[in-house]
Amino acid sequence: MIRAFRRFTIARKIWAKDDASESEEKDNKEPGAPKTRAKWGTAVKNVIRRKSDVVEKDPFLDKFTVTGRAFEKDEDDHFECSKLFTKKYWKELVFDPADFPYYYWSMLAASIIMYNIVFLILRITFHDQVESPHNIPIWFAFDYISDFFYLCDMFVKSRIGFLESGLLVKDVGRLTNVYLKSWMFKADILSVLPTDFFYFLQRNTAFRLNRIIKIWRMMEFFRLAQTHTNFPNLFGVARLILYIIIIIHWNACFYFSISRYLGFGSDGWVYPDPTTEDYGDFFKQYVTSFYWSCLTLTTIGDTPYPETVISYCFCIVDSLVGVLIFATIFGNVGALINGMDAARTEYQAKVDSVKRYMELRGVFGELQVRVIKWFDYTWNNKQSFDDKEVLFYLPEKLRAEISVHVHLGTLRRVAIFQDSEPGLLVELVLKLRLQVFSPGDYICRKGDIGKDMYIVKRGRLQVVSEDGKVIFVTLSDGSVFGEISVLNISGNKTGNRRTASVRSVGYSDLFCLSKRDLWDALEEYPEAKKNLMHKGQQLLRKDNLLDEDAARKEERRLQNLDKRIELIHDAVDDLQYNVKRLAKQIQNQQNPGLLQAKSKSRIQVMPLPQEQPKEESKDAPKEESKNAPKEESKEPPKAPAPKEESKIEPETKPVAKPESKLEETKKEDNEN
Fold first, then answer.
1. pLDDT score of 599
2. What pTM was computed for the model?
3. In the chain, domain spans
4. pLDDT: is 376 or 260 the higher one?
């Protein structure tokens, strides 16, 4: 109401400013009344649109690109009612089974199915009492409304997307084909068959029993609700009770129908004669039948014994169903109770183990009381859960989004992180640890080496002197201390030690970030590291705690160290290259055959012009050997031998090259 009044006043001011000049010139109000109303309506619409379109953006939130669309929505996501009346919208409409629109539609469909499950059997059994002439139009209206929703649900089921390769399929034609080939389509067709037309021939609601085939849709909604609700155990109990009531309701209707078939009041087992005043009322008939059904299905007994075969068979079936229901009740209720107390049981086991340890080690008195009070505080304030254990099964991106959402207010309070990179902030958020301190606990003492920084989430802390008697300042929610010590800034006059002691007044919840976690995250963000160091130095300068000379010396040393590291990296790269080259040369020397084969292949590919006289010299000795086989001692064909050696000479040349290169590399290494 307050927001509406504010919008109304803003619209009135805007209209007053726009219409001030015109209202002074016009004396006749009636001709200007339509324009006035139009301007008034336009002003109101503009204000409402302006209020709805303006989204307060947080520059700190904008840096978290990892969260994607978690904190802001595009203009395309803004739903307009005018889209509902376009054909394009209905042609391209696809439902995501994991979104809330489909969940709420399933809830509506389940309620319609529940109507048919409960009232169809009731109208069939108590036909004379329920379907009186003045009630028939009402039942017809409800029946055809439910049929209309059945048809709408078929349309929705034909537009349900599914995941394929991690993406939601939105092809309407493909989704429709998948639905038409599924068993759900066959069940839906059977459930909407117009069998109730026979109702006009014979007034019997049994012709509409095919509507109950769609009961699978109600069970599907129960599965969805089990995952969407924040109270799954309570919902499980309610669902179990609903199933039991439906079974008892149907069994009561069967009992009354069998009593009518056997004859009311024919024996002690059937329902009494309804013509009497005591048993003629509809509510009396239904409540009596429901009571009998409860006694039978819960195996309590205390009912008249059956006297006919039909009544005996019905009681046997009821007894078997009752045993199953009884076992189901005990099993499910026990499991639900154990599930509801699982966290409490785990917590109590931890407390008992600590108590046993203190008893074995002789820890009694005030310390034991403090430990037990600490456990009670953590349980009562829901601090007994470990974030890492709870979020262990989620992927890293979702864990980061949840951590950013939970610890966003905490990060705002740290001044040195305001301009940091979003990736670094996400890393730091994931490394925050919650610690709970009891009254009188010291978070840190004066002179301790600073290894952690703290952010006060809830509680009050006192900064005291070394003896704890003098209180310098009191820290409350949102305070930050110890951020300079974790940066390990060179030139700090305190030597990264605590300058005062911090003590918890009551129970305090603090977020802790260790020095190791911070530096592990800064290894991947060198620019952010430089910025943080610069901010830390500025804070130390304000408090006159920075030794400028020591800081400059450290900066020079780090610069020289960086240059040396670069030179070492270059030398290592050169050494690796030389080692690889030497390894190849040694391998070639150990396998000369391989080298000769390579040289032969090169010679064959590139033939020399001196090869023709070589072939003639080869043919000449062959002819001479045929004519004079006995002149072997003279051996005239040995003349081409030196030519063959000349062929081998280029093969030996590549072998000599690696040796010279090896000697050169050795000389270079010796010089280095």
1. 58
2. 0.57
3. 84-228, 231-382, 387-546
4. 260
What DSSP string describes 554-604?
A: HHHHHHHHHHHHHHHHHHHHHHHHHHHHHHHHHHHHH-HHHHHHHHHHHHH
Q: Confirm if 391 and 405 have CB atoms less than 8 A apart.
A: no
165-198: per-residue pLDDT in tens? Answer: 778 888 888 999 999 999 999 999 999 998 877 7
Would you identify the CATH topology of the domain 387-546? Answer: Jelly Rolls (2.60.120)
Q: Using N-to-C axis directions, what is the helix angle for 641-671 and 548-590, rounded to 10°?
A: 160
CA distances from 331 to 325, 327, 335, 336, 337 (A): 10, 6, 6, 9, 10
Which CATH code is given to the segment(s) 231-382?
A: 1.10.287
More confident residue, 448 or 551: 448
Residue 548 is which amino acid?
Answer: E
Q: How far apart are CA 53 and CA 3, in angstroms?
A: 15
Kindly state the greatest CA–CA separation across the chain. Answer: 150
Same fold, 231-382 and 387-546: no
The residue type found at 547 is D
DSSP category for residue 269 = S
Averaged pLDDT for residues 84-97:
79
What are the beta bridge partners of residue 481? 454
DSSP reduced 3-state for 224: helix
Q: State how far the alpha carbon of 12 is from the alpha carbons of 2, 24, 37, 172, 356, in Å.
A: 15, 17, 12, 48, 72
Predicted pLDDT of residue 372: 85
Q: What number is the average pLDDT over the span 212-233?
A: 89
Mapped onto helix, strand or coil, the DSSP state of residue 331 is helix
Pairing label, strands 480-481, 461-464: unpaired
Task: Using a pLDDT cut of 90, give the percent of the chain over it.
Answer: 15
